[in-house]
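Worked example

This section walks through a single chain of length 255. The input is the sequence exactly as stored; nothing has been trimmed or padded.
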Amino acid sequence: MNEKWLVIGEDARLKFVAKKLTDETRTVFYKKSSKWDEEVQQAYNAFNPTKLILPIHSLQVVDDIHIKPTTAVFIGKSNDVWRSALMNTTVHHYLQHEPYIWKNAHLTALGFLAYLFQKEQLVENKTVLITGFGRVAKMTAKLFATLGANIIIAVRAPIQLAEAQAYGYEVVPLSASHERLADFLINTIPSKWLTNSYPTYLKTPIYDLASAPGCLTTDAEAKQYELLPALPSKYFPEAAAELLYDAILQLDKGG
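Given that input, the structure is written out below as C-alpha cells.
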C-alpha cells in the first residue's frame, strides 16, 4: 500500500525530511506553515494522509484541529491543545527518542560554534560558563573543552554538580551567592531563572541555547543577550533532517 505522508512546518529541516521520505512506496506532501489554520486543515482533508509530521515546536492553532484516528502523528513538543486534538490518534514523540535527542544536541553544539565563528569569535583560552548539564550542555562542554576553552558548569542539583565534576569540569552552584566571572555564558536551562539578583551574569555576554522564552525574567536587563533556537536547522539543515528522518522511521517501525 502506498503511504501518504504530510509534513507541516517552517523549519528548514522539514523540507529535506519530506524530500528524503519520497520514494515509490510513499507519496509525500510538504506544507510550509507555522500555524494550523483553515488552509492547513483543508490541505490535510484533501490529502488524507496516513502519516503526519509536525515540527519540533507546536504549531500555533488558529482554527479547529480535526485529525482522523487513521493518521499516525509524529510530533516534537506538545501542549494541552494538541494533546486534546490528538487524543484518539497514534502519536509518536520524536523528542523522547533518545538517539535523536543526543545527536541533535551534538548538532546544536556544532551550530553554536558555527555561529561564533561567523561572528569571528574564537573559544580557545576563553572561560565559558555553561548553566545546566543536560544533553546540550554536555555536548557543548565537550566540544568547547576540546577546542581549548576553560569550562565552568553551574547547576543547582547536587547530582549534576557531582556528574560535571566527574567529567573533569570546574563546577559552581547556580545561585546568586556563587557567581563566577566568564568571557561568556551559555544557558541550556529551559526556564526563566536569570533575575536581577545575578548582576555578574547579567553583565556577561549570554547565549541562550534553550527553547523560547529563554532564561531572562521579564524584569532582568542583560548587557548582551541572544536567544539562539533551532541552531541545527539554521546551520546544518540537511544533517538535521537526516537525524529526524532516521528517528521518524525508527518510531514508525516501533523502535
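What to look for: The chain has a mean pLDDT of 96.
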